[in-house]
Amino acid sequence: MTKIGAALALIVLAEILIADGNGAVVGGFAFAWITALLLTRRAIWNDGSARLALVAGAGLAAVLVDDPSFLGWVLFWTAVSLAALLPRHGFDDALAWMRRLGWHAMSAAVAPLKDAARLSMVRQRRGPSSGGIRAIGAVVALPLVGGVVFLGLFANANPLIGRAFSRIVLPDPWAVTWRTMFGLCVLVTIWASLRPSRRTTRASRIDERSIGMAFEPGVATLILSLVTFNAIFAVENALDIAFLWSGAGLPAGVTMADYAHRGAYSLIVTAALAGVFVLLALRPGSAAAASPLVRGLVTVWIVQNLLLVASSALRTLDYVDAYGMTVLRLSALAWMGLVATGLALIGWRLLADRSASWLINANALAAATVLVTASVIDLGAVAAAWNVRTALAKGRAGPPLDLCYMARLGSSSLVSLATLEQHAREPRLRERLTYLRWENQTETADAQADWRLWTPRNARRLAIVRGMFGTKAPRLRPAPDGRRCDGVILPPPMVEVPSAAPSAPAPQMPAPVTPAPKPLTPGAQQ
After folding, report:
1. How far is residue 381's CA from residue 63's CA, in Å, rounded to a whole number?
2. In whole angstroms, what is the distance from residue 29 CA to residue 471 CA?
3. Rounded CA separation 128/508 (Å)
4. I want to staple 358 with a disulfide (CB 3.0 to 4.6 A). Which of 256, 354, 428, 473 is the partner?
5. Alpha helices, DSSP H only, in 86-204?
6. Structural domain boundaries of the chain?
7. pLDDT (tens digit, 9 = 90+) per residue, 313-347?
8. pTM exceeding 0.70
9. Of 374, 240, 387, nearest to 315 (Cα)?
10. Taking the mean position of all CA atoms in its chain, how far away is CA 266?
11. From residue 390, how far is each of 96, 258, 398, 406 by CA, in Å?
């Protein structure tokens, strides 16, 4: 009954806090979930790993208070689920726990139904009880039905009672449906952590023998493959060194932007496939891993893959220098660093005869570090700050500043737009930046006015911008036809003038095409 009460309390709290908002209240609900686990799952107190997972969950809940995000919520759910499951099975390797967490998530949908069925069976075994639902229904059925009938008759006979009933506003059926579905989703999410399925923690550990049996070529085949792969990779790395790293001129028809951007993501996929090949083909203790020639070829190939990843990162950085930073490009750089770390760990595993579990856990730790960092840091704000800082430092020599992209970042770019506005010298550019900054500031302030959408991070951003420009609306040029996404005022539409002579109509002029906005820097002229 304690767990049922905790589940109902969390559902009510979720309906109040997060059904209509995703502000700091999301973190408040996360802390309430942690509290419910501590009160209903005493086994967590006695398990060191579970306590550590719950501490990590509390840290992620604090992140959700400051700036809630989908990634932060997924990481919090992972930490809470680990805390709920670890008392039943110790931590062995991350891959096995990924499968357990996947089964935990899938079984959550039917967990409340299964527990309700078990409770019904237990009551049936105990026999009929006077305090059961049927007994309560038999007692209250007649008063309820009779009371409703008499109230209806009196409402029809007495205008005062009828007027009182007419003032009762029934809830919107769509709102009731949405709230019911939301409550069921909350129940499914939290009940699995309060009563996790025992099947979730069954042994499913990956061992060395299972990996080796999946794919283990002969020594001769492996040597020939590694020689071939090393030769192919050497050609690609030589071209990168010749043109990308040294800065030599490219052949006619190939620009540095094309060369830098085209292969960045493909090379990362290549390096990842190479790492998977080494992981599957070279199991520590196998005949291939014992061969000095194979170990030497693998070491050379891993070094070549690391150079390939470095070239991919350099390609991306060159493209950023030419076209600016975005969240996707910043995420790609983080992914490249993660791939390089995985390759280095694969090489060290082979040279130091480490186990597959060690490699999986080391890579999982590296991936968790990157994901937690991405949930704490606002990548949109980082990209916007980089673009503004580069524009102020380089001016026309820097990459074009995409104001439309800055506007799409929402509150993440608010402080960066304000900084750019302060330093803009050209009046028309400054006016466009003022418009974009004020629109962003107004939208952020409106969201902050709703306690369900309020976040400390946006409160800090608003405080910084209001300290720079205040809260008074700026004076802007009228824009009767609106503005483009970069703040440029749209021209009025063309009006066709009818011809004076019907017999010889004048040829219609094509509608003018508004030229695409030129990327501007703070010192550029309009």
Report:
1. 16
2. 32
3. 89
4. 354
5. 94-107, 111-126, 133-157, 159-166, 173-194
6. 1-131+171-204, 209-372, 381-469
7. 888 888 888 889 999 989 989 988 988 898 898 88
8. yes
9. 240
10. 23
11. 45, 22, 7, 14
